[in-house]
Amino acid sequence: MEYFSEFYRPTPIVVPWSGSDFFGVRTEVQIGKSPKAPTSTAIIEAFLATDGERLADYRRVIALTLDLMTANGVETKSDIEGSKGKETKRAFLAALRSNLPETTVQWIDAAALIEEDRIAFNVLLGSGGGSDGNSHYSDNFMQNLWDCLPEFDGQRARTRPPRALQNALFGLPAKGFSDRTASLFNSGAVGGPNATSGFEGDSVLNSWDFILALEGTLCFAGAVARKLSSEREGSAFPFAVSMSPVGYGTAVSKESTQREIWFPVWNIWSAARW
Amino acid sequence: MGGELEQEWETDPEKPCILIGTQDMLLSRALNRGYSIKESNPTQLLILHSRFRAGDRQSTLLKMNSQLPVEGRILVSTQVIEAGVDISARTLITELAPWSSMVQRFGRCNRAGEFGESAPARVICVGPAKPEPYEQQELDDARQQLNSVTDVGISHLKDLGPGTVQPASHVLRRKDLIELFDTTPDLCGADLDVSKFIREKDTSDSQVFWRRFEDERPVPSEPVSGRRHSRRRAGSRSMEVGDIPPQVAIR
Question: Which of B189, B145, B138 lies closest to B166 in space, CA to CA?
Answer without folding.
Answer: B138
